[in-house]
Design goal:
This protein is of the alpha/beta class and about 325 residues long. It has helices spanning about 1-5, 20-40, 50, 55-65, 75-85, 90-95, 115-120, 120-130, 225-230, 250, 260-270, and strands at about 155-160, 160-165, 190-195, 200-205, 215-220, 240-245, 275-280, 290-295, 315.
């Protein structure tokens, strides 16, 4: 939802309005009116084929980094860009992450959910801060006839009519969303890791600096169930890098590995230095435990991760980008 708004494909301020409310109903009606008007006037410049250009893609990446968003989008955005004839690579995320500040703390890189975030100012607040900082392209096409600056406002109902109003100058909750002059951290918290095990991405926005570097023996598993069984037997009560392989898109469709993180967080809380390395994904579950995910080439293709054995020493340095 966040990406669609940052790329101008939603009505301003509409991403996180709850269903079954007067505001949601009003926004739904307005969205249909906008669509019909675009079709009636044959305004094809306000269609996906025109809106998704290089500037919109960059805005999407910046929005992802500024909100500490899901590592899944390091795949989704590449696919969207490719469909639009644009080459986007992981290095672009890494380079932008160095200059884009983290302006939001939302689960899993903070305790708040999207409802708290929306009430504190939400996407309109973040977009305005990034625009004012010169970190977004303002001259992009959008479904809104008023352009991208309209996305710095919030929808409201006045006498039953839908209007857009300016957002407050200050955050409604600085534990959740902040101004670009005082961010949670100076970078967007996403790193690309490189080394003789391949390439991977890590969302570091929720990982404390002291946990971003680890060197420990590997414990290798071919499914998440096997790792959980080892955890329950107490076999992982030590400094360890858990390798869960054959979880990539070609191997088994790249299922969610959400079940791994609670166990790893327990180990971390016990004082052990732990990490996860996998050719699979964690979607929105990347949290306090360092996780090098989407390792490529994946193990089914004979990637280096398939050669790792129990006891091999693995070194991860998210600050230097090393795997």
């Amino acid at each position: 939802q966040m990406l669609m708004e940052f790329m101008g494909l939603h009505l301003p301020g509409s991403s996180f309005v709850n269903p079954d409310t007067p505001m949601r109903s009003a926004l739904n009606r307005e969205a249909v009116k906008v669509l019909i008007e675009n079709i009636r006037t044959k305004d094809i410049t306000r269609s996906v084929g025109f809106i998704i250009d290089a500037k919109a893609i960059v805005n999407g990446v910046v929005g992802l980094l500024a909100t500490g968003g899901s590592t899944n989008h390091t795949l989704h955005l590449l696919a969207i860009a490719k469909a639009a004839g644009i080459k986007l690579v992981w290095d672009d995320f890494s380079e932008l992450s160095k200059v884009v500040p983290l302006l939001a703390r939302i689960y899993p890189n903070g305790p708040a959910d999207v409802n708290h975030f929306h009430d504190a100012g939400g996407l309109g607040f973040v977009i305005r801060e990034l625009l004012d900082a010169g970190l977004l392209h303002e001259d992009i096409l959008t479904v809104s006839a008023d352009g991208f600056r309209a996305y710095t406002t919030q929808p409201a109902l006045k006498d039953g009519d839908l209007v857009w109003e300016p957002l407050p100058k200050l955050s409604g909750d600085r534990d959740i969303v902040r101004e670009y002059t005082e961010p949670f951290q100076a970078n967007g918290g996403m790193s690309v890791l490189d080394g003789n095990l391949g390439r991977a991405v890590m969302k570091t926005s929720a990982v404390l600096p002291e946990h971003r570097t680890i060197e420990a023996p590997a414990r290798v598993f071919d499914c998440q169930r096997s790792m959980l069984e080892a955890f329950e037997k107490g076999e992982l009560n030590k400094d360890v890098v858990c390798v869960v392989r054959y979880q990539g898109p070609r191997a088994n469709g790249m299922p969610e590995l959400h079940k791994l993180m609670p166990s790893l967080r327990v180990l971390q809380a016990r004082g052990y230095n732990v990490a996860l390395v996998t050719d699979g994904r964690l979607s929105g579950a990347s949290g306090a435990v360092p996780a090098a995910i989407h390792v490529t080439p994946e193990c089914l293709d004979g990637g280096p991760l398939s050669k790792v054995r129990d006891g091999d020493i693995i070194s991860i340095d998210a600050e230097k980008g090393v795997l």
